[in-house]
Amino acid sequence: MSQRPKLLITQKKINEAIAKLAAEIRQDYQGKQPVLIGILKGSFVFMADLIRELGLQVEVDFVKLSSYGSGTRTSGRVKVIQGLKSSIKGRDVLVVEDIVDTGLTVSFLMNNLQKKKPASLKLCVLVDKPSQHKVPVTIDYLGFTVPDKFVVGYGIDWNEKFRQLRDICIID
Ligand code: 5GP
Ligand code: MG
Questions:
Q1: How many CA atoms lie within 13 A of 11 on its CB side?
Q2: Contact 67, 74 (CB under 8 A)
C-alpha cells in the first residue's frame, strides 16, 4: 500500500455532512434520550463530533468487534471483543459506524442488538461502499457514498496509521 494518502473528502465536507445528519437525528429523537453505540475503534472521532453537533441528551457506549481474517477485507466471521456496558432493553438505540463495506459487521451487530429488545434500533454511517455489500444493510442516516477504495483518516486507520488525519483519504 502506498503510504501517501490522497484526499477524498475534506474536513469541511465532513463537518457539513455531520451538521446535516445531526439535524435529521435531532428531529427524529426529539424528547428522547437515545443510546449511541459506537463500533471501536474507527468510529470514535465521528462519534465525538456527532454528539456535540446533536445537542440532545444522549448516552454513549462502545463495542469492539473483530472479524477473523487478514488483509483489508472482512471475512464475515465477526467476534465481540468488548461488549456493551449498558442495558439497552427498552432504549432508543442508534449505532454509529465509520464505514460499511460488505455490511457483514453492522449486520452482525444489528442482529445481535435487536435480540436485547431495544425500543428502537437505527444505524448511522459516515461512509458507505454500496457496491461492496454482501448482505442487505439498512442505513438510516448516511454521510457519504464512496467507490470501492480503501479509505483512511478521520478516525479510520490502516494498520493503526492515519487515524489522526482531518480529511478522509484514499490509499492504494
Ligand atoms: P464490513 O464488515 O462492512 O465489510 O467492514 C466493516 C469494517 O471493515 C469497517 O468497520 C472497517 O473497520 C473495515 N473497513 C472496510 N472498508 C474499509 C476501508 O476502506 N478502510 C478502512 N480503513 N477500513 C475499512
Ligand atoms: Mg468500523
A1: 7
A2: yes
Q: Is the CB of 100 under 6 A from ligand 1?
A: yes
Question: Using one digit for the tens of pLDDT, what is the confidence trace for 54-88?
Answer: 999 999 999 999 876 555 566 667 888 888 888 99
**Cα–Cα distance, 89 to 69 (Å, whole number):** 32
CA distance 151 to 148: 9
Q: Which residues contact 51 (CB under 8 A, 6 or more apart)?
A: 36, 58, 60
Which residues, including other chains, have CB under 8 Å from residue 77's CB and lie 6 or more apart?
Answer: 67, 68, 69
The residue behind cell 444522549 is 58
Convert the pLDDT of each residue in 98-113 to its tens digit: 999 999 999 999 999 9
Ligand 1 contact, 127 CB (< 6 A)? no
pTM: 0.94
The residue contributing the CA closest to ligand 1 atom 19 is: 150
Q: Identify the pLDDT of residue 76.
A: 65
What is the structure's pLDDT at 66? 82
